[in-house]
Amino acid sequence: MPKMFARRAAAALLALAQPTTAWAATLKIYPVLVALDDKTPVETMTIENSGDAPARMQVRVVAWRQDNGQDLFEETRDILANPPLFEIAAGGQQIARFGLRTAATPTEKSYRVFLEEIPTDRPTAAGEIRTLLRVSIPIFVTAPGAQASLAWQLTATNDRQLTLTARNEGSAHVHLNRLDLKRADGTPLATRQESIYILPGATRSFLFDMQRPVGGGEKLTLEAATGQRSMTAQLVLQSASHAGGTR
């Protein structure tokens, strides 16, 4: 089960020498990824309110796709969220259920559930600003044997800046956590910490500012850590006009 996480939004603002406070609900939500399939068409999510005031929430599920590196969302009836509206008392919890209303396909289907805080009647003190929490959790409808397959392309912008492009040519998502570029002898060149999903058929690009200059045609090693496994690829640095992909 994915690790529980707590998300808290709070800030202190100063305007015209008048103290002003912004606050929002404090929630713990788990799991942080929901997987559904034909054998497991229903899953639950627990939302805990560890704050000192009630939290009123609404739940929406949308279809999720990616195009030109952007996340796009569309209304859907494929997954039923129950209950769609609820209030959690301070220190209380709520169980939300998600039911699959469509059949799995050979290519994984992707969705997002948005948990959005709704304003309550709680009075605010003078100078206090209420901010509303909005959390997004992925839902995947998986199929047996579906796997991600990444094709990589490394292009030079100049001798100290590279663009790494990843295209998911597989049938399941991949979750990138860390990207390391090294010379063939293991010398580190650049690192990026990420938390990026790449859906089937989607492409994402990452810009690297290099610690050392690199030249066209140089062979580099990419080490990518994902939520499922680590992978290594040997890449040849291309100029923008001679780019090619490597799996």
TrEMBL record:
Signal found in the keyword field: yes
Domain Pili assembly chaperone N-terminal: 27-141
Superkingdom of the source species: Bacteria
Signal peptide range: 1-24
GO BP: cell wall organization
One cellular component term from this protein's GO annotations in UniProt: outer membrane-bounded periplasmic space
Keyword terms, alphabetized: Signal
InterPro entries per record: Ig-like_fold, PapD-like_sf, Periplasmic_pilus_chap, Pili_assmbl_chaperone_N
Pfam name, any one: PapD_N
PANTHER family per the UniProt record, alphabetical: PILUS ASSEMBLY CHAPERONE, SLR1668 PROTEIN
Protein name: Pilus assembly protein PapD
Organism: Sphingobium yanoikuyae (Sphingomonas yanoikuyae)
